[in-house]
Write a structure and sequence with these properties.
heterodimer, A: seven-stranded mixed β-sheet, B: mainly alpha, about 75% helix
């Protein structure tokens, strides 16, 4: 076992100790196929939680998106995101000749699964913010990849914005039935449908 | 049974574990046999519940055995871990807000480990007062520094309660190990096992009595099953088993009976209280089924022990004048 693998296992075990990281699968069983997971975003912890809730053999092929300027700013951050999570780096500053989605497209062409948070930023409301258009463009470019909605519950209590140490509180990730872009579907209608699919999972778990 | 008293410590332990696992094997075999019969849905549900309880007892028994082999420090560590998981579940069920973050960190990462370190290092004088006196002040101070007056008393009280039940209560079980009882050196683990067995028996007997008696519950809104008669029967069953185990304890038969009655009775009352907390948090059924947060129902299982351990501990101390 290599060091990143061991560190990954330790991190997943830690996430489970603190949050339980329970994955509930409704409508889509955990399966080793290419997928795009999209979820509500409330905390820095969200990615780790989804990652820990996935079965171990799916973790290696499922990659997060990381902001290049922040996550490569120190050696440790860079090592964690590159070696353990195999993150896809995107730049937050937009240049004219570069499509910000290009690294994601590249990863999908490669056959990797992605986890994205279409709200773009961490929210602190009980409902997710309107989704950014990236999800739509990915769905358009890769119509054969199933889009899996996920609802992350309780995580804002584990680590509220501005705190650094997580409090042990049980959290769950509920995965829903796959979504696909319908022929001729409008961008706004699709994003609204995707957002509703995420929110609908709130009541499933009760 | 007096002859059993004269056996060496390791012989007694061996005997106790053989008896415990023997009973478990027999009960499991009977349960398996009954699962093969045709049953109504209600019976099946009851059977399913029984099987879950049985599995929990198996896990508990095996853990105990492992802890016994590995010694006092390991069993303290084991109880500490259970404490942590129970507190995690308790906090999940109470609605904490941002301002509670620091108090919760204090509870989980300072109070809990410290209490168990105190137990492991046998600082007996501070053990009983650390949480009720010092932490009682520390938690609201840290909470007030969170700068959020909304429902302050309620939030603080809930955290205090969580610590009292899950950490303070629970820590009295391994603390039995450090009681310096007359002619009972190195046998504290027996007393812990005695407490756990008695409480578990009382709990199971009460549940069985509820199913047989179909008595009117005393507080329907809190618990649909709790009635005084079932409680008394559960306590009695715990008492009888406790008296039968007297040879493994520092007690004579009658005090063993009384101690077991106290432990069993307070344990099932603790369970009753815990169902009130469940209802308050809006959780209908816990028993092993995933609830809103995926809580696994550990709190349910350990609540009787959390409530009975301090009562039992101090009764024992008082009885021996320690």
């Amino acid at each position: 076992m290599t060091l990143p693998e061991a560190a990954g296992l330790a991190l997943a075990a830690l996430a489970r100790l603190i949050t339980g990281a329970q994955g509930h699968w409704y409508g889509s069983p955990p399966k080793a196929e290419q997928r795009i997971y999209f979820a509500n975003h409330q905390s820095h912890f969200d990615w780790v939680l989804i990652w820990a809730a996935l079965p171990r053999d799916l973790r290696a092929a499922t990659r997060p998106i990381a902001a290049r300027d922040y996550w490569t700013s120190s050696k440790l951050k860079h090592w964690i995101t590159r070696e353990i999570f195999n993150a896809v780096y995107v730049s937050r500053t937009r240049t004219d000749d570069e499509d910000p989605l290009e690294p994601l497209m590249e990863a999908l062409r490669h056959g990797d699964s992605l986890v994205i948070f279409p709200e773009g930023t961490r929210g602190n409301k009980s409902v997710p913010a309107p989704f950014k258009t990236g999800l739509f463009h990915l769905a358009e470019a890769f119509p054969e990849v199933p889009l899996i909605p996920a609802w992350i519950d309780n995580v804002q209590r584990v680590m509220p914005k501005g705190e650094v140490v997580p409090v042990p509180i049980l959290c769950s990730v509920t995965f829903g039935a796959p979504l696909a872009l319908q022929g001729g579907e409008d961008k706004r209608a699709f994003l609204e449908r995707a957002r509703n699919a995420v929110m609908a999972l709130r009541s499933v778990q009760a | 049974m007096g002859a059993l008293r004269n056996l060496t410590v390791s012989q007694q332990i061996g005997l106790l574990f053989v008896a415990l696992f023997g009973v478990l094997v027999i009960v499991t075999a009977i349960a398996f046999g009954r699962s093969l019969q045709d049953r109504s849905d209600a019976q099946l549900a009851a059977h399913e519940r029984f099987r879950r309880d049985l599995r929990a007892i198996w896990i508990g028994a095996v853990l105990f055995w492992v802890a016994w082999i590995a010694g006092g420090i390991v069993s303290t560590l084991l109880f500490g871990t259970v404490s942590f998981l129970a507190l995690r579940e308790f906090v999940t069920l109470t609605h904490t807000v941002r301002g509670d973050h620091r108090s919760l960190l204090l509870a989980f990462f300072a109070v809990l480990p410290l209490q168990y370190v105190i137990v492991a290092t046998e600082h007996f004088d501070i053990f009983s007062v650390f949480i009720p006196v010092y932490v009682f002040l520390a938690i609201p101070v840290v909470g007030a520094l969170g700068n959020d007056p909304k429902r302050f008393l309620e939030r603080t009280a809930k955290i205090q309660w969580g610590i009292m039940v899950c950490v303070y209560g629970m820590s009295h079980a391994p603390a039995l190990l450090l009681l310096d009882l007359p002619d009972y050196r190195d046998r504290g683990a027996f007393l812990v096992l005695y407490l756990v067995v008695v409480v578990a028996v009382a709990q199971i007997a009460q549940e069985a009595a509820v199913r047989r008696l179909r008595h009117r519950p005393v507080a329907r809104a809190i618990s649909r099953s709790f009635s005084w008669r079932a409680w008394a029967l559960g306590m009695l069953a715990g008492g009888i088993v406790g008296a039968a185990l007297y040879w493994a304890t520092p007690f004579k038969p009658i005090p063993a009976l009384v101690a077991a009655l106290i432990a069993g009775g307070s344990g099932t009352l603790g369970e009753f209280v815990m169902s009130g907390i469940k209802r308050d948090a809006g959780v209908r059924s816990w028993g092993g089924k995933a609830s809103v947060t995926g809580a696994v129902g550990l709190l349910d299982r350990v609540a009787p022990l959390c409530f009975s351990a301090p009562v039992f501990f101090h009764s024992v101390r008082w009885y021996f004048g320690l």
